[in-house]
## 1
Amino acid sequence: MKRRDLLKGLAIAPFSERLRPDEQRQTSNTPPAGMRSDLSDVKTDPDWVLQVRGEMPVTREVAYLQTASFGPSPVRVVSRVRELMEHQLKGPAVPVSARQLQEAEDDCRPLVARFLGARQEEVTLAHNTTEGLNIVLWSMDWKPGDEIILSNQEHPALLIPSYNLLSRFKVNYRRASIDLNEDVVASVLKQVSPRTRLVAISHVSRRSGRVIPARELASALHSRGIRLLLDGAQAAGNIRFRFDDLGADYYSLCGHKWLLGPKGTAALLIRKDLLEKTPVSYTGAHSQKSYDEEGHLEWHPDGRRFEYGTRAQFNFGGFAEALRWLESIGTDEIFDRIQRLSLQAGMVIRSSKKFELASPLSDSERSGIVVVRLPAGSSGEEVFQKLAQLDRIVVSPLEDPRNLRISLHFFNTWKEFETLMSRLDHYC
Ligand SMILES: Cc1ncc(COP(=O)(O)O)c(C=O)c1O
């Protein structure tokens, strides 16, 4: 049989035809006792989901279950970036182009603020989550022996700058466990010492999808005079929250994952009352409200003081367009759908005899990241490769060689998840 025919058979055969009776039981839609009982059937795709998929060409090519790595953008974001890139490359100093590019960047800040429940003054546009994290980490007046607390599940985006702080300033880092079933606040507080200056931790774990109790953590830390920096790379656009409600001091996020914007877009949110208490480290043209040749400098009164130099404005135009699109779909619809899909998917995996669920199921801790643990002897990396090459299903392998991360965003369908589970059953 030709490989193309094989592909066709694998990817397109209806899932129900391949289900064992026990699998059919596993896909039951009944929520477990104690779970939300208002779940409507995720198995039927609502019209609005079909419509948004129509605007996302990648959904016709693959089952895209990898938003936690990089989110796919809808056509209108691609078009907006193309249009602005043309201005940027063709004649960026031509007044009409310069104006369009500047407006595209300026439009982005209020949209970020509105989407994330922050004030516009609190927004700094950055290029990736790591940049936002570094702005905060380098704003502190570190003394040798000071301490920073991280979790045991952080991305190199936070780990590597912390190693650097150790080598540059002798700032020690400690790691608090946020493993499933761990009491996160107690676990972090156990690491607190009189030298703790900052806790820097993911709002949603990239390894387990767990949402940490940010509000409780912020208030426990504030009562001890410690600031909280949240890495929201996996949270923004994945779970419902408002920055002004979290109590976190700093929040770094990117546009290129769950917000479906272009790579090279991000934002740092700094609580308004901390702006003046957050010294600027990297700066240059455009950070200032005014300056002169004699040493006078006045920062912008808002988050723009951390922005400097010539920037890829076309990308921020794309980020803004992605946010506009998400708003037009409706945040309630988006977050409800993610919650429903991840609950149902988690239940299917949890009731499986072959696979384990390595992500939380409760409403307060669940996100669109669902982690499936493969049986002993299976390799996540190998299965990931087979899924991508033979089935056109894109997921992500994780550091734990038996764990696979499934990202369920609002545009994904139940059928995609079912097909994935069927292929996993075949490969493991
Ligand atoms: C939790 C977390 N933080 C930070 C990053 C890195 O983000 P960026 O490339 O935007 O700096 C990632 C990327 O996967 C992540 O999952």
## 2
Amino acid sequence: MSADLFESMKQSVIDGDEERSAELAQQALAQGIDPLVAINAGFVLGINHVGEQFGVGEMFLPDLMLAAEAMKAAVAVLEPEMKRRGTQREVLGRVVLGTVKGDIHEIGKNLVAMMLSASGFEVHDLGVDVPFQKFAEKAREVKADIVGVSALLTTTMTGQKTVIEVLDDMGLRPQVKVIVGGAPVTRSWAQEIGADGYSEDAMGAVALAKKLVGK
Ligand code: B12
């Protein structure tokens, strides 16, 4: 019976069916299933599948976004019970993320945030048009492992460099790692500005973040 339920959970995420995922999470709670087990034996398998299919070009951006939303809906239902039981999901690391000052492109950044949080990172999303200083202040406040800076304009890319400089000035480096991304950003740019990593997409950002926190 549970095997069917777990399979349905996986499928609901693959289908990007937010309502169905939330409903299945409710069912798991009603059946007394440990919420962490529901996540790891059910929903996570769905998001992993979508990530793999996306990687090989079998699924596309909208599928990835819907899957991440479905995953989030399930986790939102399960979270209170996890807290109550004290079985918190292992937090892989803390990430401060935002689109840099002068830039209001948020779709890619939101996707990176969703995938990181669906994968077990605690994400502090500062939004768009974020002042350089704010990345560093938030990183210090939440003891971030990673700061992620998104930029979609050639004119705002230089802001990624400034964020690294501010982190340096505040003595937060090299403990706090910096990852950068956005359509005009390249690996060589990331190297040039002394970032710790670059990824061209959200799945890559998750792999990169895991590597940087040693997971
Ligand atoms: C949608 C869009 C907009 C929307 C944004 C809506 C929103 N709420 O986000 C609106 C209409 C507001 C907009 C405005 C502008 N835009 Co615009 N916009 C785009 C467009 C078409 C798509 C961007 C997008 O969402 N892509 C989909 C997401 C999923 O991809 P992504 O953002 O690249 O993110 C992925 C990766 O880059 C990576 N990633 C992203 N961030 C991060 C961060 C980290 C840490 C990591 C690891 C990875 C990572 O992972 C993401 C997921 O896979 C692009 C064209 C393009 N092909 O990029 C132009 C584009 C970026 N825009 C452009 C321009 C010029 C502008 C404007 C200046 C236009 C104008 N004259 O007003 C304004 C600027 C406003 C501002 N100050 O920011 C140019 C930039 C040119 C350049 N090289 O500088 C582009 C390239 C269009 C073009 N070909 O001319 N835009």
## 3
Amino acid sequence: MSELAILGGAKTRTESYPAWPVWDQRDIDAVTEAIKSGRWGGFPYPGPKTAELAEKFSEMQGGGFAVPMINGTVTMEVALRAAGIGWGDVVIVPAYTFQATASAPMSAGAIPVIVDVDPNTYCIDPGAVEKAITPKTKAIIPVHLGHQMADMDAIMALAEKHNLIVIEDCAHAHGAKWNGSGAGTMGHFGSFSLQSSKTLTSGEGGILLCKSAEHAALAASVIDCGRPHAVGGGEEDANGLSIQGGNYRMSELQSALALIGIERFPAQAKQREEMAAYMDESLSEVQGVRVLKRDPRHTTRSFYRYIFAINPEEFGVEHDVLCAALDAEGVGCWVGYEAMHNYELFQPQKSKLAVPNAFPEYFDFKKMNLPEATRACEHEAVWLDESIFRAGRQGVDDAVAAIKKIQRSADELNRAAEDLRKRYGK
Ligand SMILES: Cc1ncc(COP(=O)(O)O)c(C=O)c1O
């Protein structure tokens, strides 16, 4: 009988990791209060709970004017619209991210140009950004991926030099800090998701942090059907329209949940940060595992998923096989996203945004060479579930024990790999 759970052996972790989202009577009371108030939706914008959420969230991140809305995809589209970026403009995005980072510019009518990531952090490579800048480029969307942060000093220096707008995609980075500054407060905009898997959640939801009050007023207009919003808050003139918009307003029920989430967040974030440091230490002794580099300027880590890399030859199996086996051991994990230039969606003929031959170097995806993102997505990356980091040192110990167990049985696993890939769909 095999030692491995995926081949019929006993699981390393039999107890479930803690569930997400976390809730208690406070959430029930907050939603009940919102229901009883009769103000359920988001009109007129912002409702009292949404206004409170905006204030508390910018306090939590340490700056910016917060505009809550329906999700963390629309946040980026709204930022582009508020900054006047649209048809024919180019926005640089990293190859390693969720599809929303590239589809948001497309929704605003702009063209996403995909560049490679830094292998040390898996975040956007500032050198690749610089090479991709042309007179058509209007914005950069760095993504703070998993538990990492993009090099914001380099990105902001490039933005200043080339007069570009920076929208930090902080869907994974609530509470994270770079040189003591909160994620989302360094760029012109910071985009946050409050979708149910995120570490601050209202089920669905998003918050856009804006550096300027003018951008925040425009963003509020875009999400409120184009109604003018005064700089500094409040509706200006309900009859006039100032900018093309739609109904992307956050509801009071969602804001009520997010406000309770903010109360819980500091203790959860502290626990994740401590356990991530313990995971770094524990994984560094496993052969063939590479702990991603923590930049010393990344002063507070707060994360969505913990990512590490393997060298498949040294570790013994490919990352998809490791992930399938780890999952079976009771340790939630995932291989991560596909490289962005491999998504059908972003092929120029699909988006219809790419003017034929206008940007051949960026839109002939077959000629696109993004080796670091490709290596991460196809061979190296392993994303560990956040819940592992809320189960104390034992939670981390069990995950590391399972990884070591899989490595011990690598030969057996490789013999079964073809069948496993069929079973797990790769
Ligand atoms: C990196 C990144 N950006 C943006 C989003 C979009 O957020 P939402 O699902 O709230 O639209 C996500 C969601 O998973 C994400 O992971």
